[in-house]
């Protein structure tokens, strides 16, 4: 039971950290690559209306936010659980993947972005976070 609770807390902590990284990069991206003039992306309706006007450069930070948010969440979850178990990082990847798939239905993003995002941003970066955290493991730890 103790192992389950530790894993659950690791996933919750990883999800919180990953979500914070995701939101931070989304906000940074809006500052560094502003939307076209006259476009309001502060509401879901405004974002839907703006999608046809956005250029590929506007999708760079959303991709980075999804990938690096998942990476950070998986890294933190792996460190929190003791760097041996893969399940917390996999759950982080799956949680963020479900959010990415849901956003494909909610926002009319270009198909190329949706495919790139769903295929490359979530599970690969969760795996990378796990591998990097595991490599940082001290010798002899289990």
> Segments where pLDDT lies below 50 for 5+ residues?
none
Shape: elongated
Instruction: State the order of secondary-structure elements, H for helix, E for strand.
Output: HHHHHH
Q: Biggest sheet: strands, sense, closure?
A: none
Structural class: mainly alpha
| Count of folded domains | 1
Strand content: under 5%
Distance between the termini: 18 Å
Q: Number of helical runs?
A: 6
Helix content: over 70%
Number of strands: 0
Radius of gyration: 17 Å
Overall pLDDT confidence: 90
Which descriptors apply to this entry?
single chain, 142 residues, mainly alpha, 0% strand
Topology diagram in text:
Blueprint: H1 2-32, H2 44-50, H3 60-81, H4 87-106, H5 111-120, H6 123-135
Helix pairs in contact: 1-3, 1-4, 3-4, 3-6, 4-6
Give a verbal description of the structure.
This protein has helices at residues 2-32, 44-50, 60-81, 87-106, 111-120, 123-135. It has 142 residues and is an all-alpha fold. It has one domain. The longest helix has 31 residues, at 2-32.
